[in-house]
Design brief:
The chain is an alpha/beta fold. 43% of the residues lie in helices and 10% in strands.
């Protein structure tokens, strides 16, 4: 095999190393062959900028998410608008990451459109993705509705950018974020009694602290009859445990690396020494250890797929959970739900953002890339985001500011709502503010770092390590990972 083509300096060895770091073996055969040329898609002579690539077929590889499910169920409007067919392949995140890595490594673009998770795809493989600013400024293509400024600022940075160069590699596509979800009916029933017993107003909100959250949870454990436990958590030895703990870490003033706000928003190839050995990080781990000790004991067996069903089944009165689960909550617990930003620690409230953007492979040929851009425009448009909100198969919440300003969206923020996820909108406005959003480090080697974090946290929860030992051991291991660097 000769002539493997690399664009934007993407190194084949580093791509394959990244795929292997995902934890699964590469499929035999793969997509490594770039031998021989391939033809670009045809461009038609037409004044209709949406239909100039009619007859093209594109492939979109995505994690299995609610927004992608909603779009897959409603592709006809795009096909009617453009004449372009789109095949959507949905996979578990690590399998999807490997598919993308192999495609980029081979210099091909079997998947022209990519669900670019900021940590598993964007950070390690940014050099293999197209800079979308070039397409947005192309006068032969339809304009980007509202421009880049219509996207929520913290999300555009976290999901779309990597490095100080200003390139935009992805358009914000979904935005799941962890917030405080609680049984409003139970808080109303016990409000006065809790307040008298605890000595503070137990109403969830930014005025509450994590220590007060602990005391509320303990009060429910000891006093309420409707639920066995006060709180539940996604504390399985899994990425969900890292997410759940991070809310507390940031609230206590700890972080994974120095200048965590910059590393979270724009990313870094060399983030410097890990900061988990700090007093703040150890204090956060000590509190988290105490919190999980009084939570529903099944918390250590739940990831994000287990926590929400348990909450809806009435096992606990409150939990930190992803806001896009609101639709399911409202269906199961009609009229009983409440939402608030997560509690404050000694420093701030931090609400873990887990959003992702949609990208275009840098291996695409010129016309193929422009055709893919049409799908990016449509899939992140105001109308499509509105349709996602109304979707019967789920759908996400908007990443555009303008969608939240639509009269029907504002009206849907009151129950009964035809768009139940939008009931969280007032809370999300607070959660996504720069001072409240929680951003994990956007570094190329994050996959390995994350595994180290949740492995040592799990050992702590099992009693094998003290909180201080868990934090120091994690910091030491992360420093070894980052010291190897990332060749890209």
């Amino acid at each position: 095999m000769t002539g493997v083509r690399m664009r934007r300096g993407l190194d084949r060895r580093s791509v394959l190393r990244g795929a292997l770091a995902g934890g699964a073996a590469l499929a035999a055969g793969g997509l490594l062959s770039a031998c021989g040329g391939r033809a670009d898609v045809a461009r038609l002579a037409t004044d209709d900028r949406w239909r100039q690539f009619a007859g093209t077929t594109l492939n979109f590889v995505s994690e299995s998410t609610a927004p992608t499910a909603a779009i897959a169920a409603n592709l006809k409007p795009f096909q009617d608008l453009t004449g372009i067919n789109v095949n959507i392949v949905t996979l578990e995140l690590s399998a999807m990451t490997q598919k993308v890595a192999l495609d980029l490594a081979g210099g091909e673009s079997q998947y022209q459109l990519i669900y670019a998770d900021p940590y598993n795809v964007l950070a390690p493989y940014a050099n293999g993705l197209a800079d979308l600013r070039e397409l947005a400024s192309d006068p032969t293509l339809p304009p980007l509705e509202g421009g880049f400024g219509d996207f929520i600022d913290t999300q555009l940075d976290a999901a779309g950018k990597f490095g100080p160069g200003g390139e935009i590699f992805a358009i914000p596509y979904d935005c799941p974020t962890i917030i405080w979800q609680y049984r409003a009916d139970l808080f109303a029933k016990y409000h006065d009694r809790m307040g008298e017993d605890l000595g503070f107003d137990p109403t969830p909100g930014l005025d509450r602290t994590w220590e007060e959250y602990f005391r509320i949870a303990k009060w429910f454990n000891d006093n309420a009859t409707e639920t066995p436990f006060g709180t539940g958590h996604q504390a399985k030895q899994h990425g969900s445990l890292m997410c759940d703990f991070s809310n507390v870490l940031w609230a206590y003033g700890g972080d994974y690396f120095e200048h965590g706000d910059v590393v979270g928003r724009l990313g870094a190839r060399d983030p410097g020494p890990c900061q988990l050995g700090s007093e703040q990080a150890i204090a956060a781990a000590e509190f988290y250890h105490r919190l999980i000790s009084i939570a529903d004991p099944s918390s250590t067996s739940w990831d994000w797929n287990g926590l929400s069903p348990a909450f809806r089944a009435g096992r606990f009165a409150m939990c930190p959970d992803w806001h896009e689960n609101a639709a399911g909550n409202e269906e199961a617990l009609a009229g009983k739900m409440g939402y608030a930003p997560l509690p404050r620690g000694p420093v701030r409230s931090a609400n873990h953002y887990g959003g992702t953007g949609i990208s275009i492979s840098g291996n695409t040929l010129p016309n193929e890339r422009k055709a893919a851009w049409l799908f990016v425009l449509w899939s992140t448009s105001v109308q499509t985001q509105l349709d996602d909100l109304k979707s019967s198969v789920g759908g996400g919440t908007p990443t555009r500011k303008s969608v939240y300003e639509l009269p029907e969206v504002k009206a849907a923020q009151r129950r009964p709502s035809p768009m139940p996820n939008i009931l969280t909108a007032p809370v999300m406005e607070q959660a996504w503010a720069p001072e409240n959003i929680g951003l994990r480090p956007k570094v190329p080697m994050w996959n390995e770092c994350e595994t180290t974090i949740y492995t040592q946290l799990s050992r702590m929860l099992a009693g094998d390590l003290s909180p201080a030992e868990a934090m120091r051991e994690t910091a030491k291991r992360i420093d070894r990972i980052t010291a190897r660097g990332w060749v890209n």
